[in-house]
Design goal:
single chain, alpha/beta, 11 helices, disordered C terminus
Length: 287
């Protein structure tokens, strides 16, 4: 994000190069790669590889997405066992999210997690806001086709939270949406940085304006944020929550950072899932 500011500053006098400006923003916001967190591959060892193929309406070209499928033991035993589409953030591929995927499975979900174009083994194409939304919709359709009778949920971490909100406003059949460490918009994130007072917003092409979309979600929304998140300020998560309508909850995880809120806040997740979505039972100590 800080590199994005440097790019925008350098572009103040170069507005004619709009195509290059857009391309650079896509590179620096998504940071697409096949890299994973240390230990991610080991954590993903017993997860199943999934391939999702479709023709892009945006480009007219064939797309192949790679994903990981991590079913919960309840999937075969209970007709109402929930399934979850997991949408990761920038920089790391889907394997890098294996620890978080496992934690969501421990909360009762069978999890499908996917790489957008440009990440991991998916089609090597520079992602964008619209392409990532298309990829998320393709993954959602895959999940719906294979588990049409299951309650289906959408989860997004960081940048994936913005993609999750866009997907949730598109589809009519999600049971609930969960976002963690996410934001109101990219311009708002930029405004929290050292040079955020500069008039950079008009130069931002990849805007991810979730604050304008979240009211269109037709399902309950859970917004989770770490109190010590230094990349995406907790205030942005709070503002996103306030802009949402209908059933919703905001969970501030004390001591949670941008990367460990999911693990530190596991008991609070369990509580919120029970109270907002009716999944599982709230821990006795938190009732």
């Amino acid at each position: 994000m800080k590199r994005l500011i440097a790019l925008l500053l350098a572009s103040l006098g170069l507005l004619a190069g709009c195509a290059t400006l857009d391309e650079k923003q896509r590179q620096w916001i998504f940071q697409p790669s096949d890299r994973s967190w240390s230990g991610g591959s080991l954590a993903a060892e017993d997860m199943d590889d999934v391939w999702i193929e479709f023709t892009s309406a945006e480009t007219g070209e064939p797309v192949r997405l790679h994903g990981l499928w991590h079913p919960h033991p309840d999937l075969r035993q209970r007709a109402d066992a929930p399934v979850l589409l997991y949408l990761h953030g920038a920089r790391w591929n889907v394997t890098g999210s294996a620890f978080r995927i496992r934690r969501m499975q421990e909360l009762g979900f069978s999890v499908l997690a996917v790489d957008y174009r440009g990440f991991g083994k998916s089609t090597p194409q520079l992602p964008s806001e619209t392409l990532a939304a298309e990829d998320a919709r393709a993954a959602w359709d895959w999940l719906a086709q294979r588990h049409p009778e299951r309650p289906r949920y959408i989860f997004g971490h960081s940048l994936g939270g913005a993609i999750a909100i866009e997907l949730a406003r598109q589809v009519p059949d999600e049971r609930g949406t969960l976002v963690e460490g996410t934001f109101t918009s990219i311009p708002d994130v930029v405004s929290t940085f050292r040079w955020g007072w500069l008039p950079l917003s008009p130069l931002i092409t990849q805007r991810f304006e979730s604050v304008r979309k979240v009211a269109d979600i037709g399902s309950p929304l859970l917004v989770v944020h770490g109190s010590e998140d230094r990349l995406i300020k907790p205030e942005l998560g709070q503002k996103l929550f306030e802009a949402a309508r209908g059933p919703k909850a905001f969970v501030l995880v004390e001591g949670g950072s941008h990367h460990n809120t999911n693990s530190v806040g596991q008991p609070q997740y369990r509580q919120a899932l029970a109270e907002l979505f009716g999944l599982g039972e709230a821990p006795q100590a938190m009732r």
